[in-house]
Amino acid sequence: MKRALASVLFAGLLAAAGISHAADHSAIHDKMMKTGGPKPDERVELKLPGPMKAMQKRMMRQHLDTVSEIAAALGANDMGKAASIARGLGWTPEEEERCEAVGEMTGEPDFLSLGKAVHVTADELAASAEAGNRDKALMDLSRLIKSCNACHEKFRH
Ligand code: HEC
Asked: For atom 39 of ligand 1, which residue has the closest CA?
């Protein structure tokens, strides 16, 4: 019964998303059912006022842009540019204040440590780029992206 309900809900979701081609539908459906069907989002909800959430998401989209700009500078072998963009994402007293404030407002101290990990990794990336070590800078970039997602795995709005 539960499975049938999930199946109906899922078909509705696909239809709402404009996915109506029968073959696509059944392939996606089979794949989801194999992994146990749609699951609830069990991440920790950050209880913040709406405008703060909007601001936080705006900053997040900027972060994603920054990551893209670092990748482009590394691709162009412009290590000076990569270093200076990465430094801009580095750990500073202002950044600490921002992450700490969210941690305190939400009662989630992990927000500070997960946030710090991103900014400290950005500093490491900057140091690699300053040293002219592109291979290391790319590995740092990979770690940076993973540290972004470590927070996304834990928290949601
Ligand atoms: C300390 C926690 C934390 C860290 C670190 C973090 N994020 Fe986020 N991010 C969030 C939260 C919370 C949301 C909102 C998720 C939701 O909407 O449920 C979010 C959402 C986003 C979004 C979606 C924005 C939108 O408009 O909906 C993007 C893109 C994003 N983050 C990029 C990044 C990137 C890139 C990094 C690393 C450079 C990063 N984030 C690091 C917590 C974090």
From this structure: 148
